[in-house]
Amino acid sequence: MTDTADSTTPSHKQPRLLYCRCAYAQVIPADVKDAVLAGLTESGEAFEAVPDLCEMAARRDPQLAQLAAETSPLKIAACWPRAVRGLFTQAGATLPKTGVTVHNMRTDSAEDVLAGMQTADQPTPEET
Amino acid sequence: MIAATLPPRVVLYEGPGAEPLEPKDRRELFAQLLDRGYAVTLAGSGVASAPPTATVIVLGRFQGSAPDVAGGDGPVSVHDISGEQVEQVVEAVESARGARPMNRPEAAAANTGGDTWKPWFPVIDMDRCTNCMQCLSFCLFDVYGVSETHHLQVENPANCKVNCPACSRVCPDVAIMFPKYHAGPIDGAPVSEADVSREKMKVDISALLGGDIYAKLRERSADAKARFSRERSADQALAERRRCLKKLADAAAIPREVLDALPSPEEIQRRAEEAQARADAARAAAEAAT
Lengths: 128, 290
Fold this sequence. Notes:
The structure holds two protein chains of two kinds. By secondary structure, chain A is an alpha/beta fold. Chain A has one domain (2-118). Chain A is built from five helices and five strands; from the N terminus they run ββαβααβαβα. Chain A has a five-stranded mixed sheet with strand order 1-5-4-2-3, with helices on one face. In chain A, helix 1 packs parallel to helix 5 (110-118). Chain A is globular, with a radius of gyration of 13 Å. By secondary structure, chain B is an alpha/beta fold. Chain B has two domains: 9-116; 123-289, no CATH class. Chain B has ten helices and eleven strands. The chains are: A alpha/beta, B alpha/beta. At the A-B interface, helix 1, strand 3, helix 2, helix 3 and helix 4 of A face helix 1, strand 3, helix 3 and strand 8 of B.
């Protein structure tokens, strides 16, 4: 399950990558999140990794607001897109309708998530 | 318990003037820090957009002097990790954090200390919420509140009872998510028409229980109390209470420990009336504002 809001909007900016570890509850399969983290760290590309978006949303962590305010496209490896958007909104950091792609590590394979995170910023299907 | 303080942010700097870590060390370092509750950034150059007031801990295998890094307004500490093992680097981060409290994932808390808290709280899907306030009038723990613009909001997430998704069961619009729940649509999975019908059925189940789940609880509790006074059998009264609570728990997916922890019937009534009054006032204010 991948959610791409208005993915047809072209952008030439380097996307920012955000990885959620779901460390506080383990609802994401360990093998998937480990493999995605391995792929991101081994690529050497700059990225942000957070222990748990839920925990940060509860604290209204200002890092969420900063991410939401980014003008660069944002690619997120976490869980269900509806939940991720809800968490940002609840933290007072509503994600923009355009330029944000959420890859779901609860349902997708690590290969699919990594492919989505690491490919150049190209249009992708709204729901896959 | 949730610690509200901003935890330090760790930046692994591998830009100009720093030697990159081996990929396996980088992966292991990220995994260990994340599992201890630290956010980590892999940075190629500079340290941009650090949250204001956050302590930033910059790590790197610096060649010569550490490069200038730009953090936020908070303090920045720079650590040269040349020649250090991953475990030593993690220890250095823990040491740099000092005594600042922070939430810890449960698995790490035993070794690292700190408050543990499973991030369990409702998340509202604002695209589905109709501001009906059923959740506000249902919740006895003041999790919900009303914003200045008269809209429902999650006001006290830490008040929520871990593993209890009961309020999502009374939402007629399937707008309440618990991202840590094990199944959809409560976990945030897309909502299907079948889900909407099923959720409506759950509300009906609640109605079948007596229209007001708390009224039913009070009634059950009063029955049990009367039986206890008649029979003077604490065991029998307890067994009856458990049997009734199990029915409610099954119908609304309320963990039994949550029901067991409910306050006295009088207190339940008081809180339910208070919550109902807040919901009514919020609905009226929202209607007046439109």
